[in-house]
Write a structure and sequence with these properties.
With 557 residues, the chain is an alpha/beta fold. Helices cover 26% and strands 25% of the residues. The strands form 5 sheets. A 10-stranded mixed β-sheet has the order 1-2-4-3-5-6-7-10-9-8, sandwiched between helices. Helix 12 links the parallel strand 17 and strand 18. Helix 13 packs parallel to helix 14. The protein is elongated. The relative contact order is 0.08.
Length: 557
């Protein structure tokens, strides 16, 4: 399902492993009118970051560069020091002529965006005349841009898409004013010698004016990284699925999302490889808030995350919103390479063994509060875990998939899952939170035409069966327009992403065992705001480690 790798565009780019200065080997980017020199990290760093939302730095220089000059500029900025750690892409974009022409180079910019197709963390750097072009043209058309660094450029226009920006060099405060106006930034603070302007409703929309003490490009880039570039990424999942790509301006401004920086969040990450079953080596990543490392015995919840089909095993940790949440709520997260992908596939039994290993290794973990959540294929697997391994988990969440009817998929047989739910009916209860986007074309949203074989409807039904709830045999969209089934406490939840969710609950007696969130006009991917809703739902439930009975605690109003 995860066809990503827009980066097939870069196949022609020569690559070498990280090795001092030679780690950045530039090649001419194909199929563009202007000369663009580009290099992509090898993506082989298992201790690095999730590569699909890693930074892409495009530099607009003061004047045209040949390949050697382009490489020198990259090192003068110091980008080489971030390149491998963050699995980055870096390129130098020359003007079409000897000087920038706003009209012609804007067309070239649009053509480059269209050639890239899938963009998720685009950072634009302008220097001198290149900064002027960025300020006057790119900044006004920055739907896909996650951040801008402008050095010694002239003032641009106030119109256009809001975009985080770092402004340095000559007349930097005057240049920054257009960005401040565009971003609706009203809060002004001095911090570490820099001047910050922030949008109160969207804290990622910062404009930062660099300190006069930043004399070199390397100093400026380091400051831009610290206060702008490391704070967010930008991708578009509105009315389509982001990794299928889109053209310039097709779906409007991309979403701003936090780019997690573990050190600043107080989180320690471990990369773990273990053979727990004698079948081969498992890989998983652990995320421990520092506050939990010496917490009292049995006091810290554990959340297991499962990535989508053949995704990178850091996908959920870095894009679901749960890492940001665990830093605030003090729970531990482990994301598992459950499919293998160079390691041993875990299967449901292997996932169970990883949980046991974690509980034995970290006595601060609470065996009564273990939860699982997944995306796409990981959602289907988590949904199966809730039935098959109901003794282990206190609640289950699934994003962008449920159970696929009449199929053997992702290591288990759906028919066996249904039979197990039937056998456990009335004896076992498992809370389930299901999330689906209405524009999901990969695993389609439920509607009046597809409900009979719809993966979400089927998952809801199987959990209704096992939980001993009223089982909804068919949908009625004429009566229940949004969900197709009767739910209680229905409400619309708005977010600062200009995307809303429809939420409803099905109760068994007074216990909310099934909760559904529908993300309006959203494609096949995580939606970070629903992580908080899901965690609040999870936190109402525990499972007695001895009797295996579900424990329900009424949520605080």
């Amino acid at each position: 399902m995860f066809i990503l790798f827009l980066f097939n565009i870069f196949i022609l780019c020569a690559q070498e492993e990280f090795n001092a200065k030679d780690s950045i080997v530039l090649s001419r980017f194909p199929y563009t009118q202007q000369v663009v020199y580009i290099c992509r990290d090898t993506m082989k760093n298992v201790d690095g970051r999730f590569p699909s939302f890693s930074p892409m730095f495009l530099i607009y220089p003061d004047k045209p560069c040949d390949k050697n000059q382009a490489q020198d500029l990259i090192y003068e900025l110091g980008i080489n020091e971030y390149f491998h750690k963050y699995t980055a892409i870096v390129g130098v974009v020359n003007p079409l002529g000897d000087k920038y022409d706003n009209l012609r180079d804007f067309e070239a910019y649009k053509d480059l965006i269209n050639k890239l197709r899938v963009i998720s963390n685009l950072k634009i750097i302008g220097i001198g005349a290149g900064a002027t072009f960025v300020n006057k043209v790119v900044a006004c058309n920055a739907d896909a841009v996650a951040g801008i660094m402008s050095v010694n450029g002239e003032v641009g226009k106030k119109e256009g898409t809001p975009v985080p920006a770092f402004i340095a060099g000559n007349r930097c405060r005057v240049v920054a004013h257009a960005y401040v106006e565009r971003n609706g930034a009203t809060i002004r603070k001095n911090r570490d010698g820099c001047l910050y302007y922030t949008n109160e409703k969207e804290p990622l929309l910062n404009v930062v004016v660099g300190s006069n003490k930043l004399f070199s490009l390397k100093d400026m880039f380091a400051e831009a990284w610290k206060c702008i570039f490391s704070k967010n990424y930008r991708f578009n999942n509105y009315r389509h699925t982001w990794y299928t790509g889109c053209s310039f301006g097709q779906y409007g401004p991309y979403e701003l999302e936090p780019y997690i920086m573990l050190d600043s969040m107080g989180i320690v990450r471990y990369t773990v490889t273990k053979d727990l079953l004698g079948t081969g080596t498992f890989l998983w990543y652990e995320y421990h808030p520092k506050s939990t490392i010496k917490a009292p015995k049995g006091s810290v919840p554990l959340l297991i995350l499962l990535h989508g089909n053949n995704n990178d095993p850091r996908t959920q940790a870095e894009t679901s919103g749960f890492i940001e949440l665990c830093a605030k709520e003090n729970f531990v997260v482990a994301e598992l390479e459950w499919q293998g992908n160079g390691y041993t596939p875990m299967g449901l039994d292997g996932i169970e063994q990883v949980v046991y290993y974690l509980l034995k290794t970290y006595p601060q973990l609470d065996a009564s509060r273990v939860y699982a959540e997944g995306l796409s294929a990981g959602s289907a697997t988590a949904t199966g875990l809730g039935i098959r391994k109901s003794h282990l988990f206190a609640a289950i969440g699934g994003h962008s998939a449920g159970l696929f009817p009449n199929r053997y998929s992702f290591g288990f047989n759906e028919e066996a899952i249904v039979n197990e739910a039937i056998q456990k009916r009335g004896w076992v209860e498992m809370p389930y939170f299901s999330v689906v986007g209405t524009s999901d074309e990969v695993v389609p949203f439920i509607n009046q035409d597809n409900w009979k074989n719809n993966t979400f409807f089927h998952a809801w039904k199987v959990y209704q069966i096992m939980n001993g709830m009223e089982v909804v045999e068919k949908t009625d969209f004429s009566k229940y327009r949004i969900f197709g089934i009767k739910l209680e406490d229905c409400c619309n939840v708005s977010t600062n992403k200009n995307i809303s969710m429809e939420v409803g609950v099905q109760y068994k007696d007074s216990i909310p065992l099934l909760k559904i969130a529908i993300v309006n006009n959203y494609g096949h991917w995580n939606f970070k705001p629903d992580a908080q809703l899901m965690w609040k739902f999870f936190s109402m439930f525990a499972r007695d480690p001895v009797t295996k009975k579900l424990i329900y605690k009424i949520a605080d109003k």
